[in-house]
């Protein structure tokens, strides 16, 4: 199956999607990446302009379809804020990064998770799409954490100060809010966490999405059962 990715939102997230997807597949497969604009996404996300961002995605999806793609994925958890609106316009099936997480947490025996990501992801507890898992977030510090995440995503670089902020927020959700694990619900957070010890369980939502895409690419899974 020919996989299409809407990338560029941000660039670091796109790179890690490409790296992990090719590693998960372990051989040749069909992949096309369409570059979107991160500033447009940020503006529409913060203003909750779902229809406007869905229109942007639809244009990228049309180009991916013209390139021969069979399905498409958005390489941003925060970019899923307009997922339903995008489905209504999409010329290709969309492979959600949010939908598989609930089942994954249940399978891992996790009933309460801590969220790190964009302001909207944290405020809405992953857009309210977790049906079997309770989510907590650092509500009293969401603005500072959300701005730091946005700055990191745009620059593609995580500063030591940003890394310390994210890791400390995760520790607080474990120690004082009852989270059993911290979920990196922002696809650029690998910049902060990869290669660094935290002392608590960290689950990268990107890996769950990549596993699903790899299964599709290799014919081990179907879009519609």
The CATH topology of the largest domain corresponds to Rossmann fold
H/E element string?
EHEHHEHHEHEHHEHEH
The percentage helix is 40-55%
CATH architecture type of the largest domain: 3-Layer(aba) Sandwich
Tally of extended strands?
A: 7
In total, the number of domains comes to 2
**Termini Cα gap:** 15 Å
Unreliably modeled segments: none
CATH class membership of the largest domain = Alpha Beta
Mean pLDDT: 94
Q: What's the number of helices?
A: 10
Protein name: Putative racemase
GO molecular function, one term: amino-acid racemase activity
Pfam family, one: Asp_Glu_race
InterPro entries: Asp/Glu/hydantoin_racemase, Asp/Glu_race
Short key terms for the protein model shown above:
225 residues, alpha/beta, Rossmann fold, 2 domains, four-stranded parallel β-sheet, three-stranded parallel β-sheet, 7 strands, globular
Describe this structure as you would to a colleague:
The model has no long low-confidence stretch (mean pLDDT 94). This protein has a 4-stranded parallel sheet with strand order 5-4-6-7. Strands 2-1-3 form a 3-stranded parallel sheet, sandwiched between helices. 49% of the residues lie in helices and 13% in strands. The chain is α/β, with parallel strands linked by helices. Helix 6 (119-123) links the parallel strand 4 and strand 5. It starts with a strand and ends in an 8-residue tail after the last helix. The protein contains 10 helices and 7 strands. It folds into 2 domains: 3-97 and 207-217, 3-Layer(aba) Sandwich (Rossmann fold), CATH 3.40.50.1860; 99-205, Rossmann fold. This is Putative racemase. It comes from Pelagimonas varians. GO terms for molecular function: amino-acid racemase activity.
